[in-house]
Amino acid sequence: MIAKGRDIFAGDTLHKSARLSVAPMMDWTDRHCRYFHRLLSARTLLYTEMVTAPALVRGGALHLLDHTPHEHPVALQLGGSDPAELASAAKLGADAGYPEINLNCGCPSDRVQSGAFGAVLMTQPGLVAECVAAMRAVTRAEITVKCRIGVDDQDPNEVLPEFLARIIAAGCERVTIHARKAWLQGLSPKENRDIPPLDYGLVHRMKGLFPNLHISINGGITSLDQAKAFLDAGLDGVMIGRAAYHEPANILCRTDPEIYGAGEPSDPVAAVRAMLPYIEAHLSAGGRLHQVTRHMLGVFAGRPGARAWRRTLSEGATRKGAGPDLVEQALAALPGLVEPVPAP
Fold first, then answer.
1. Domain membership flag for residue 114
2. Lower CB count within 10 Å: N or C terminus of the chain?
3. Active-site annotation holder among 33, 107, 131, 172
4. What is the pLDDT of residue 4?
């Protein structure tokens, strides 16, 4: 699982990678999605979907940790609220090859609340600090936190500084702040992504209060230019969620030269073709084409032929026997972008 000769636990490497990251998103950022995103950007920090500590420790669902060295730098996000259980899960994650373990303190879903973790933990900064300390005690992996600015009727100007001070004291050196409150009562998870107003200014003020804390900002960021503006304004990193998933090329293809100052822009057509051997291997292992290609539907968003690309894959990838030839057929719908592959 770990690339030979590489210290995946080198914190400076992670901090540099965290200048831009793709948010952990349930049902979206699985290993197929991450493999594809890595072909678009060699340096962007990627995150798993949230994995619950009970699933790993009590359920033995270690397959949820599956990933490949190709995905690095990649971080594992955990959900949970029991310090001992999170410590055990963090050790499992580090042993599986994850250099960063991120604690979810931002998800507002009912399912997460019922497990006493996610955004509801914003009300228990002392417990979060215990969790961070417990995880740090058992692994070399960096322990980070993703949080909201507050929940429900909390005053973010009061609760967020205390929350950050507690986790810093416990050993957390890097945090991602979703710049919205989470309303645990009255709003659905989907509404919580859009309705609570964004307060980017508060996140900037937190950087002023805690200059040694690596702070990434998250929430409502839809373009690489917007991300660059946050970095230029003094924040350490930017995390992009839905835009990176629905329009991955528009976010990730220019990331390496424009965010990290290295390499050339990537070619989305070349990335799609580089997925073909991966798809072959997945199908040979008993997988289905749509499990991979569903993450590739938006790669040509805004370009000629994008609608035909999406339609070809959406309609055909679930059919029995669908394989890489369907991807080539979908590519042929992109006028001016793709030269047909000659017949063997």
1. yes
2. C
3. 107
4. 37
